[in-house]
Amino acid sequence: MATDLQVAVLGAGSWGTALAAASARNHPTMLWARRPEQARRIAQARENASYLPGVALPEALLVTSGLDDLFEHLRGAGRSLMILGVPVAGMEQACREVAEGVQRHGLDDLAVVWTCKGLDAATGRLPHAIAQEAFAGTGIMAGVLSGPSFAREVAQGLPVALTVASASAELRGRVTEALHGAAIRVYGSEDVIGVEVGGALKNVMAIACGIGDGLGMGANARAALVTRGLAEMTRLGVALGAQADTFSGLTGLGDLILTATGDLSRNRHVGLEIGRGKSLDDILGDMTQVAEGVRCAPAVRDLARRHGIEMPITEAVCAVLFEGVSPAEAVSRLMARNPKEETAPSRPGA
Ligand SMILES: NC(=O)C1=CN([C@@H]2O[C@H](COP(=O)(O)OP(=O)(O)OC[C@H]3O[C@@H](n4cnc5c(N)ncnc54)[C@H](O)[C@@H]3O)[C@@H](O)[C@H]2O)C=CC1
Ligand SMILES: O=C(CO)COP(=O)(O)O
User: 202 an active-site residue?
Assistant: First the structure.
């Protein structure tokens, strides 16, 4: 392999594994799984049977459960890239482990990109704020990778377009070099906040669309939820410092369309089952993979309230998931809202 870029992927769930497989086709790549048994099984079978059953992983992909192996893999590389494949709940711990590993192994030029789509459930912080705190003083370059991308399709080599956002052009270049190729297009952006808000909120909107479809509300209702959902995403994003244009791109509208309408979506699945009358506990109990929108919805609602931003669809999703409001009642409440101009500002006094 004629490359001086070496790649490490922390987290062997469906997305971490899919990205590791894509990177391993062009660059020396090591995937870290938390459980030794899981790492052994992936390495032997060349398949991640728990998360991506039936998808063959490249022979060149290295697999470990030793965090130090991951840093040793990167040490001595001309340029190095770490991809975090953990959900937002694991972001703080992962960033701390990376910061400690960088110091322990004397890495001085690491780029780290996270892929989680959500907000910290307790504080409402976006992932970049979690990373900023953990990476302070380490010299690590940081950024986010997002966009409409079901892991299974990417792992199968089907075409996809992603966006990497970072203030660091060097990081954007490394991520592009690691993944851009025959089946993956990588676009760059400097709007970290916009990309993160889009990724987090599209999951909440996908739950809403799933609920609507589960209730049999029809295609008109789905289109209305996608469009008004995008308006909510954009309003909150702009209030937090994002560029409005980002929300009509891959990480906004693109990912919203995919997740709200694609049957591979875990968030849409949660909504569908709720709409069909199943309880949230039963739905989550049957799932082995994360549906980020569930924990994210109340954090988004609280953040929006703090900023005085109206987010009726998010409020409705929270009411159905956590306040015992029936899906039908939540729809009635949404429909009973006062008429307004489509592009009217939704912040008191704005
Ligand atoms: N699966 C997909 O199609 C895509 C997922 N994403 C995002 O990537 C992130 C990861 O998602 P998936 O790989 O799909 O999830 P997953 O449920 O398939 O796997 C999550 C992985 O993280 C580990 N993990 C779970 N909780 C953790 C915690 N608290 N601390 C540390 N590690 C933990 C699990 O052991 C597992 O290896 C999510 O934020 C998701 O929204 C982004 C794009 C596509
Ligand atoms: O983020 C995703 C697609 O871009 C995956 O969506 P789900 O988490 O709903 O499966």
Answer: yes
Look at strands 62-64 and 184-189 and give their pairing: unpaired
pLDDT recorded at residue 350: 56
Instruction: Choose the residue to mutate in 150, 152, 195, 263 for probing ligand 2, maximizing ligand atoms within 8 Å of C-beta.
Output: 150
Q: How far apart are CA 218 and CA 275, in angstroms?
A: 13
Separation of CA 14 and ligand 1 centre (Å): 7
Tens of pLDDT, residue by residue over 3-46, are: 799 999 999 999 999 999 999 999 999 999 999 999 999 999 99
Ligand found nearest the CA of 261 = 2
Pocket test for ligand 2, best of 117, 145, 257, 268 (most atoms within 8 A of CB): 117
Expressed in angstroms and rounded, the spacing between residue 90 Cα and the centre of ligand 1 is 9
Q: What angle do CA 7, 112, 6 make, to 5 degrees?
A: 15
At 348 the pLDDT is 53
Binding residue numbers? 11-16, 34-35, 51, 117, 147, 149, 151, 202, 255, 265-267, 290, 292
β 141-146/160-165 pair status:
antiparallel
Record the tokens describing residue 37, joined without a space: 């048994």
Q: What is the DSSP string of 35-75?
A: SHHHHHHHHHHTS-TTTSTTPPPPTT-EEES-HHHHHHHHT
* Span 107-128, pLDDT tens digits: 999 999 999 999 999 999 999 9
**Which domains occur in the chain, in start order?**
5-190 (3.40.50.720), 193-336 (1.10.1040.10)
